[in-house]
Design a protein that fits this description.
single chain; 374 residues; alpha+beta; Purple Acid Phosphatase, chain A, domain 2; four-stranded antiparallel beta sheet; 20% helix; disordered N terminus; binds fe (ii) ion
Length: 374
Amino acid sequence: MGVVEGLLALGLILNVCVVCNGGTSSPFVRKVEKAVDMPLDSDVFAIPPGYNAPQQVHITQGDLVGKAVIVSWVTVDEPGSSEVRYWSENSDQKKIVEGKLVTYRFFNYTSGFIHHTTIRNLEYNTKYYYEVGLGNTTRQFWFVTPPEIGPDVPYTFGLIGDLGQSFDSNKTLSHYELNPRKGQTVLFVGDLSYADNYPNHDNIRWDSWGRFTERSVAYQPWIWTAGNHEIDFAPEIGETVPFKPYTHRYHVPYKASQSTSPFWYSIKRASAHIIVLASYSAYGKYTPQYKWLEKELPKVNRTETPWLIVLMHSPWYNSYNYHYMEGETMRVMYEPWFVQYKVDVVFAGHVHAYERSVSAKTWSLKLLALQFLI
Ligand SMILES: [Fe+2]
């Protein structure tokens, strides 16, 4: 290439970059230093007072269409009750629904009693109060159901991933809570507690994370995606069943979308059809996830839900040096379908540096697509 052609090419590239620069969307600049976890006696981890008081209360969507809610919580002194009492804002008549409890062991850790109870047949667009626990240690929370699914329904999703439990995690959660746009549901793109950073994956840090996040997730659903920090595969201490703490603690409505696994599923909420994919489950041809996604994409009704959103943990496009191209093999498998079915937006976590892009295909828009904003 001659000098003139070279300059022309450079000029074209710079021009494309200028045209496609998304600009700075937030004045916030993350500090570079390594995050430090909050000590266990921090106020955000406080155990609610009272014998066998429910703790780590969290909710998520409990069906395909947003008329059900899964309520989960932990009791530690004794099993207690898996009952949820709930009533709508406009009624003082309490309804009662029973759930189930599970426990698990992880090396030398034994979990508390983890309750999961699904409330069904809720009305859309309605505030509900709910109670868990018994007697003096009853705790009360509330949530608001989404509007009926439809193309013209405005709705505000928050987006959080890779949260952990550092001092910065607390800032992140407060940042979300204080946002004047008032997110109504969190799309959580994986990596919850980072308990696996501790010796023997100290599952006490799963409990502390549950108490830390309760202040948001007890009041609005967080839509869960599994990340690498949920794998908890530790054969060196005899823990060979992947995702054991995550699957016991965080239930999702995967059967409602004909999925056979909690790691991939879909929900519809307001004007969005949301597909959750699993970066750390098999996704090659003939695998259960592949077969499910192949059937799922043609089901999306863009007249009903014009927004098609996909959540995954490991991004397909990333210009950062960390985790570079870890999502590449999944991209190769599924990107043609995403193009064919016109996925509007893909949200991913994993890389702790914010990037966003215009639509991309087989890296062909790489130069134009990836821009550091923060
Ligand atoms: Fe990750």
